[in-house]
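User: Quick sanity check before I run a bigger batch. Here is a single chain. Can you write out its predicted 3D structure?
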Amino acid sequence: MGLADIVASVKSGAVKAADLTEVRLAAIAAREGDIHAFNHVMADEARASAAAVDEAVARGDDPGPLAGVTVALKDNMCTRGVPTTCSSKILEGWLPPYDGTVVAALKASGAVAVGKTNLDEFAMGSSTENSAFGPTRNPHDTNRVPGGSSGGSAAAVAAGFSDFSLGSDTGGSIRQPAALCGVVGVKPTYGYVSRYGLVAFASSLDQIGPFTNTVEDAALVLDVIGGHDPRDSTSIPQQHPSLVAALQQGVGGLRIGRITDLPEGADPDVQERLEAAFDTLKAQGATIVDVQVPAFSFGLTAYYLIAPAEASSNLARYDGVRYGMRVEATDTNAMYGATREAGFGDEVKRRIMLGTYALSAGYYDAYYGKALKVRRLIHDDFERAYQHADVLLTPTSPSVAFEFGSKGDNPLAMYLCDTYTIPTNLAGHPGMSVPFGTGAHGLPVGVQVLAGTLQEPVMFRVAAALERSLA
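Assistant: Done. Predicted structure follows.
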């Protein structure tokens, strides 16, 4: 049952939000021990929220556009009075004094939050193996990773722990785990969704988006959480058109771009599903056109200078003084160092050090400055491609879900998991992963649909067409 059906049933009184919540909490109780999708299950809060929805229905009030729908929140989104850790020891036990904008919007919409999901520490990773609280496992095969950094959010939806979830995407952290877990994952245009209350990793790249079971569900969620927020200076100050309304328009006459200079590296089974996606869209009336994005291959290089540089600045606030962990020492500077040494994991330390170096005197122009210029090249190359194509199709992930530990000793191999997703973050454009069949070991494969700035409606049209072709 899709989100719209759930909402209609709750509003009509045919189904109780409390009963739907109990179903999800029972699923969590049954399988969470094997999956570890959550850092914190909000059972009491969820029951109270569901009861409030049912009471509103009984009074004849409108409980909201997501009434009774359960949601799991990535544990880097501030939730008032609920532990928000970013899967880091340095924030273990921290209780935010406020709700982030998306969290407040979901509460107002009648959605029922069931928990805070596991992630790679401070969203730095592609497998959710870097969490201070242990890894999340892929519901399709618990010997394999769910992707990252939003692996817990993807796994929660794939395992049936929640009707949808929210993640954050800095270099592919929604789309890649969506592909590996076989769900829909959307990174909107930068500024489409408020970042207020999202614990920052790389502020010019981070964006919040949904994981859902269907394209229509993703459209419904984005219609609720999207929009201008004056508390976020990067929020786009305009109304967004309804994405749900765009879904039935089809793809007849659209131009679907095939990037001819796309970096190699996708496994044959993934490439096969991508080709099938092109064939499907062509059969539905779209035109396949060849385009070039020459700077696409520079995305990884630029990203791993820009993102760590911003992270080194953002994470300087964790000093043991204002909130979170504190390790006592002989003086203040020693306390800073001891707290960060104990509180941050290896991958976070690695990126802070890389970013600090890239920003240091004598190296800023050579590294960070050049990376910003490459970022502009990537953006401009995408803009030229979108003059010839309405959307672009690529693999989401180079492979299906991989086994635990297979890339952990080689950070570069892990970074290559984001080859196809990172350039879109650098450009600020929207992208989404749509499940499109299976590959090796019968595991899910995702196809990535990319579009230009604020072109979410056409992106969703193509995604819906791909989804319908498998129905």
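The mean pLDDT is 97.

User: Great, the batch can go ahead then.
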